[in-house]
Amino acid sequence: MSVSKEGKNHKLKTDELEKLLEQTHPGDMDSYLNDMEDELLDQEREFTMYFNEKLKEKHLKKRDVFLWADIGNGYGSKLITMEKTTRRRDVILRLLYAAHFTLDEAQHALRLYPMPLLYARNARDSLIMSCLHNRPGDVIEINELLLKNGFDPLCSCGSLD
Fold first, then answer.
1. Residue 82 falls in which region: left (phi positive, over 0), alpha (psi -120 to 50) or beta
2. What is the pTM of this model?
């Protein structure tokens, strides 16, 4: 199987990649992976590029986002570049909220990190989703809303990562 990269000025849709995969024998995957290199995710690079692109689009500075998220500059920078990772989704949610991500942008960023997406059937997640959509205040106010409704606040950064 051979797919030309020439003349390609946009990324293929996921369903288009799936159709190509249906036609690809497992023995030909090395060729597919080579041909589709620009279409496949490099999670570290993709998350970093996406986060930085959104900051630029929103005219935000990283140091401000780290301040608003109550995350140290060094640690925040390492999280964004994925030099250091966390298993704590709340830490990433703090960054995303502080960076004024919309709900759709936050879900996409969580997918790239990779972290579990916010789930509307989970009561705590649904409150966080509403906050991302309606922007009621800063991270402190989100935590107050979570506590008021009987949920754990967004955990802060710490040694539990």
1. left
2. 0.72
